[in-house]
Design brief:
The structure holds 2 protein chains of 2 kinds. Chain A is α/β, with parallel strands linked by helices. Chain A folds into 4 domains: 24-91, Phosphorylase Kinase, domain 1; 100-171 and 366-566, Rossmann fold; 173-361, 3-Layer(aba) Sandwich (Dimethylsulfoxide Reductase, domain 2); 605-717, Barwin-like endoglucanases, CATH 2.40.40. Chain A is 31% helix and 18% strand. In chain A, strands 7-6-18-17-16-8-9 form a 7-stranded mixed β-sheet, sandwiched between helices. The relative contact order of chain B is 0.12. Chain B starts with a helix and ends in a 17-residue tail after the last helix. Mean pLDDT of chain B is 92; it is low at 1-28. Chain B contains 18 helices and 10 strands. The radius of gyration of chain B is 26 Å and the shape is elongated. In chain B, strands 8-1-9 form a 3-stranded mixed β-sheet. A 3-stranded antiparallel β-sheet of chain B has the order 3-2-10, with no helix packed on it. In chain B, strands 4-5 form a two-stranded antiparallel ribbon. Helices cover 46% and strands 9% of the residues of chain B. Chain B: GO terms for molecular function: 4 iron, 4 sulfur cluster binding; metal ion binding. Chain B: One of its GO terms (cellular component) is membrane. Chain B: It comes from Acidipila rosea. Chain B: Keywords: 4Fe-4S, Electron transport, Iron, Iron-sulfur, Membrane, Metal-binding, Repeat, Transmembrane, Transmembrane helix, Transport. Chain B: InterPro entries: 4Fe4S_Fe-S-bd, 4Fe4S_Fe_S_CS, DmsC, ET_IronSulfur_Cluster-Binding.
């Protein structure tokens, strides 16, 4: 501003009126002139996996506005606060714009050639010295399906390392494993529409009002439908419920078994379905016989009447739906809890019908894409490493020798970190993820980051708490800067489009992968003639053909036209044919074990962690959207008034949360009846007060998912020194 | 800002006003399908039983209006109650309530507000606004917000530009739960029974007769309480007003005292005129748009702010005339008396500005008493520097005593009040920093009283002025406005 302009502003002659005018946008009507677009680009939201359709307004090559796509079947024009402000992320500060290589201890800008040559050289050095699997790669749920498919081939077939996993293991791995246990394959069986059709909807450990707000309109209060919410905390979602079951932490298995007990006892099961489509009913029946309402009442803290009532509601429902998210998954018993949910659906025939489904509500925008195409916990197309026929089929499709295809899954995410600490993994490559905030038990993670010989962080933003540790930072394009597909929770494949160019020298992850393949000398072998993500998509269509997740009939053009297409149709398993050998689903006996770290007199509180509606994951993005960040600028600790009285704490006191592993200092105390006595809760988004300084490094033996949700802590008044 | 609705209606060719065709499916139930008839107006309906606290409305509002992140014309509040596991938590979502008796409209010195005769929407003109922020003080819901980047206030206008085009306001359009809608209300019937405007977490609707209808969950009223009550922060200090009010009171008080002692000579008058000039110029700095300060005279029939400006302006003129006459040797005592009367009237008008229902700690008899007693205190200690001093010590000592008594009674009443905002003001005065300032202000005035009894007038005047300035600073920062319940973090800031 010139001196004259400043003077005019100071005197009030100028009121910046020009920045505050209104115009009629041709499509959306009267709005601030700053939000009027020249064109609207159709795309899909890049935050969570609800998969809302949106239109991004562009003017002078800048993203200026976002609107929900009124024609999109998922969100019907609505968006949550993160979606409504998503265009700001494309002009946000803090972007990584140039490759940075650590030289003499400082990250120094280098050319892409130097960056990628160094990367290939250093990885090769490590792999030659310590073995191929000494390169650990951790991906994400934030890339395009085309990029996941490309990256999987690059890591497993190009770099030939099996130490490859995604941050989806921190998130949805238990759902994947649970589906595999029960049905023989991953794949959420239902659709969002089932929530509207069902007459009983039960949400377990799922606070959708904060985490998936745009699903809530499907559960609007309705005399025809009963909404049951199982959560130890009185969440926003619990307030929507007809019946909130405030269970003790991690007692959901007991509740599920107890419901099965009542269903079998009262004859509210579907015997025909059980005998035709499932295995294991007799041992299951015997097993749940022990879960009497009396015993379950003691385990869950609910009354016997409530347990019987809920079981009967579920059993008598015309169509019953069970949805879950992290309250179930974030546990050492996550995978089997999913199996316990599936048990209920199977014995009542509540699967494969309109409104009737067990249904995992996924986390990241494209966690599903990596589950299907990613080559981490399974071979692309839900194929199994251990199945010879699957490997042969893939080898044939790829024109490779079958020996090139690994015969077993490599290390999962937490095991890669442990191997790095143990000196077995000596190079790490993180792509679009921020483990320094998101991985449990931070001190072990930090040790891993410091132990490796070469650490590459590929991200849209720099610095992040993780990229601070990097030897090489690769600047990547983000949502809105590249084209491809995402698949949402209900298997809907949606198109994501390029709205603006990536800043500086940042490149699409896809281009980085192809460039690395070139330098490795495998580009023509693995990606023959590929130049765009569409080439990857076309190969993925061929590779997925005939699989449960069959993309072969879904073209990009069709996706654009129909605002997304669900693979497998509206629901899976309508024919009752499951993916186990023999085609039958399995019932599992799932014992209810206490969670790993029980409170003691020294660490008397159970710490629960979760999200707020304003933020996404570790805030690398939403902290840069000023509006969202001012709405929830810092974390707090929720504590019941009973406990606060005992500790003589007042609202807004500063407190520290201390576990056996570390402490989170200087949190603001919120005294509230939202949490039960003996439990405390804090949001996990904030690097400044990182909940993972205290969380437990215990992992599900099947899914390898961390037990983020319960650990024993002590709460003390924070004293500034 | 676009033209107000009624102008568009009057000016003719825009039939959007009467047509109000809903655009697309779903919109039909959320905005009325007709314009309000005579005696009717638009209002918001907020259904608390539907709201899930997702804050989409808040973001959509900022996007609609291109507002900076720290300004939220629509805000969300959290209210909670009950005991675990039967805890209740609910949310408030509020823009402007487009009140029937809007205090922002009444207080505005420049007529920047219009209660639109057709729609009842309370419209604000950024063009007319001078950024005095008196509406911010007047609104019991803290709806108008000062945009420092612009120097003017802004507020929710119910997206009238969209309504006239038959489109839902941004918040209505964004809500995924259809919890916000626009309705038509009969003003006469609503004035008789506005009980469904009341809600836990909201100031009583009766102050200004809010038109927003709120559908509450069952049993909400008994149990739900705001969760932001512990996060009360000091208000803006308005330093230019601290200085202006204290100096004007000193000038008016001194002139009266000097006249009573027959000692308003040309030297004193000149000095007072100089101080008045400085004070009035400083006061202009309070405005977001100082260049348009003169506009503040406009609404003298209605606004105490206009009256203050008018009376102090006339005071300055009378004092100038009296000073000029004094220098010309034409003693015009009546002119000085007239100036004194205008000065005291100005001080009273000044006090009346702060008697607003939306700021309970100001809205007490102690405010005008403080302003008058400050004038007496400062006048009684400054005057002896220019006039004879017999009996002046006793008068000044008495003024100091009364001033202190007024402050003490005010503090006791605040801390024992049944009103949350008044107790919270007392609470703020007891926080670290403000507590010390409070003690210092009282001590300074007591010391000034002692010094004046000893006849040390220069020291007494300086110390008393220090005490009054500090006390006035506390008056501004410690007021806790009425407001809707906000979120636990109250919109942020560490």
């Amino acid at each position: 501003m010139t001196a004259l302009a400043r003077l005019k502003r100071a005197l009030g002659i100028d009121t910046r009126q020009c920045d505050y005018t209104y115009e009629r946008d041709a499509r959306f009507g009267h709005v601030s002139s700053s939000r009027v677009a020249e064109k609207w680009v159709k795309t899909t939201c890049g935050y969570c996996s609800v998969g809302c359709g949106m239109l991004v307004g562009v003017k002078d090559d800048k993203a200026v506005a976002v609107r929900g796509n009124p024609e999109h079947p998922v969100n019907r024009g609505k968006l949550c606060p993160k979606g409504l402000s998503e265009h700001h992320i494309l002009t946000a500060p803090g972007r990584a714009k140039t490759p940075l290589l650590r030289k003499n201890g400082t990250l120094t800008p280098v050319s892409w050639d130097e960056a990628l040559d160094t990367m290939v050289e250093r990885f090769a050095g490590v792999q030659q010295k310590y073995g191929a699997d000494a390169l650990g790669v951790v991906g994400t749920g934030q890339l395009l399906t085309e990029e996941f498919y490309t990256l999987g081939k690059l890591v497993q077939l190009g770099f030939r390392s099996r130490s490859y996993d995604g941050n989806t293991t921190l998130c949805m791995a238990s759902a994947v494993s649970g589906y595999k246990l029960s049905f023989g394959s991953d794949g959420p069986p239902g659709s969002y529409a089932d929530m509207e059709t069902a007459d009983v909807v039960m949400l377990i450990g799922a606070n959708i009002a904060d985490n998936h707000p745009i699903l809530c309109h499907r559960l609007e209060r309705d005399a025809e439908r009963t909404l049951i919410v199982v959560d130890p905390r009185v969440t926003k979602t619990a307030m929507m419920a007809d019946l909130h079951l405030a269970v003790k932490p991690r007692s959901d298995i007991a509740l599920l078994n107890g419901m099965a007990h009542v269903l079998i006892r009262d004859g509210l099961i579907d015997s025909t379905y059980i005998s035709q489509y499932t295995d294991g009913f007799h041992q299951y029946k015997e097993f749940v016989a022990e879960y009497t309402p009396e015993r379950v009442a003691a385990l869950t803290g609910l009354s016997e009447e409530t347990i019987v009532r809920v079981a009967r509601l579920y059993g008598k429902a015309r169509a019953a739906f069970i949805g879950w998210t992290m309250g179930v998954n974030h546990s050492t018993q996550g995978a089997v809890t999913v199996a316990a949910i599936n048990n209920l659906a199977l014995i009542t025939g509540n699967i494969g019908r309109a409104g009737a489904s067990p249904f995992s509500i996924t986390g990241q925008c494209n966690a599903m894409g990596t589950r299907e195409s990613g080559f981490t916990s399974s071979l692309p197309g839900y194929r199994k490493f251990e199945k010879q026929a699957d490997r042969e089929e893939l080898a044939r499709l790829w024109g490779l020798d079958v020996e090139r295809i690994p015969t077993a899954r490599g290390l999962a995410y937490p095991d890669i970190i442990e191997a790095a600490v143990a000196g077995k993994v000596k190079a790490l490559w993180f792509i679009a993820t921020n483990p320094a905030v998101s991985f449990p038990n931070y001190s072990v993670l930090e040790q891993a980051l410091r132990s490796v010989d070469f650490l590459v962080v590929q991200d849209g933003f720099h610095p992040t708490p993780t990229s601070d540790f990097a030897d090489l930072v690769l600047p990547a394009a983000i949502w809105g800067e590249k084209e491809g597909t995402y698949t949402n929770s209900e298997r809907r494949v949606s198109k994501v489009n390029r709205v603006v160019a990536a800043p500086g020298e940042a490149r699409a992850d896809f281009d980085i992968f192809l460039d690395l393949a070139e330098r490795l000398g495998v580009r023509e072998e693995l990606y023959p003639g590929w130049t765009t993500t569409h080439d990857a998509y076309k190969e993925w269509q061929r590779v997925s053909a005939g699989r449960l997740c069959d993309y072969s009939g879904i073209s990009w053009e069709q996706i654009e036209e129909e605002s997304g297409v669900q693979w497998g149709g509206a629901r899976l398993y309508e024919d009752g044919v499951f993916r186990h050998e023999g085609g039958r689903a399995k019932l599992y006996n799932v014992p209810c074990e206490p969670f790993v770290e029980q409170p003691t007199s020294e660490y008397p509180y159970v710490l629960n962690t979760g999200r707020t509606v304003e933020h996404w994951h570790t805030r690398t993005k939403t902290a840069k959207v000023q509006l969202l960040d001012t709405m929830a600028p810092y974390a707090w600790l929720e504590m019941n008034p009973v406990d606060a009285r005992r500790l003589q704490l007042k609202p807004h006191d500063r407190v520290s949360v201390i576990s056996r592993r570390g402490s989170v200092k200087n949190l603001e105390l919120r005294i509230t009846g939202i949490v039960a006595p003996g439990q405390v809760f804090m949001p996990f988004h904030f690097a400044e007060t990182n909940s993972n300084l205290v969380t437990l490094g215990a992992f599900d033996p099947i899914s390898r998912e961390p037990n983020f949700k319960q650990c024993a802590v002590l709460v003390e008044r924070f004293v500034t020194k | 800002m676009a033209l107000p609705l009624y102008e568009r209606a009057i000016n003719g060719d825009d039939d959007g006003l009467v047509r109000l065709t809903p655009a697309g499916a779903g919109a039909a139930t959320l905005i009325p399908d007709r314009a309000p008839a005579a005696g009717e107006q638009y209002r918001f309906h907020f259904d608390m039983t539907k709201c899930i606290g997702c804050r989409s409305c808040e973001v959509a509002c900022n996007e609609q209006n291109g507002n900076p992140a720290e300004i939220h014309w629509r805000r969300i509040g959290e209210i909670e109650g009950g005991t675990y596991p039967d805890t209740l938590r609910h949310y408030l979502s509020m823009g402007c309530n487009h009140c029937l008796d809007a205090d922002c409209v009444k207080g505005c010195p420049v007529d920047a507000y219009t209660k639109d005769p057709v729609t009842g929407i309370v419209l604000h003109s950024a063009e007319a606004c001078i950024g005095c922020q008196y509406c911010v003080w007047n609104c019991p819901y803290s709806v108008p917000q000062f945009n420092a980047e612009r120097g003017v206030v802004g507020k929710c206008d119910m997206c009238h530009g969209r309504l006239t085009d038959g489109l839902e306001p941004a918040c209505v359009n964004a809500c995924p739960e259809a919890a916000i809608a626009i309705e038509i209300v009969d003003r006469t019937a609503w004035r008789i029974d506005y009980s469904s405007a009341d809600s836990p977490g909201m100031p009583a609707a009766g102050h200004t007769i809010s038109t927003t209808r709120i559908t509450l969950p069952e049993d909400a009223v008994q149990t739900l309480q705001r969760v932001d009550a512990g996060r009360i922060r000091p208000e803006h200090a308005h330093l230019s007003l601290v200085v202006m009010t204290a100096l004007m009171q000193a000038v008016a008080g001194t002139l009266v005292c000097a006249l009573l002692r027959q000692g308003a000579g040309r030297g004193l008058l000149t000095a007072l005129l100089g101080v008045t000039g400085v004070a009035l110029n400083i006061s202009v700095l309070h405005l977001g748009r100082p260049a348009y300060a003169w506009r503040a005279l406009k609404m003298w029939r209605r606004s105490w702010l206009s009256r203050e400006v008018l009376l102090f302006g006339l005071f300055f003129a009378a004092l100038s005339a009296a000073t000029a006459m004094a220098w010309l040797g034409a003693g015009a005592q009546w002119l000085s008396w007239m100036a004194a009367a205008l000065g005291v009237a100005g001080v009273m008008a000044s006090a009346c500005i702060y008697l607003v229902a939306a700021r309970p700690a100001w809205n007490m008899v102690h405010t005008p008493l403080d302003f008058l007693l400050s004038a007496a205190l400062l006048g009684s200690m400054v005057t002896p520097l220019w006039t004879r001093t017999d009996g002046a010590g006793a008068a000044a000592g008495a003024a100091a005593g009364l001033w202190l008594a007024n402050q003490a009674v005010r503090l006791v009443r605040l801390s024992r009040s049944e009103r949350f905002e008044e107790r919270a003001s007392a609470g703020l005065l007891n926080t670290s920093g403000l507590r010390e300032a409070l003690i210092a202000s009282l001590a300074l005035v007591a010391m000034a009283g002692a010094l004046s009894l000893r006849g040390d007038w220069m020291a007494a005047a300086v110390v008393a002025l220090g005490g009054v300035l500090l006390s006035r600073y506390l008056f501004f920062v410690s007021v806790v406005p009425l407001n809707m319940a906000l979120t636990f973090v109250r919109g942020g800031g560490r």
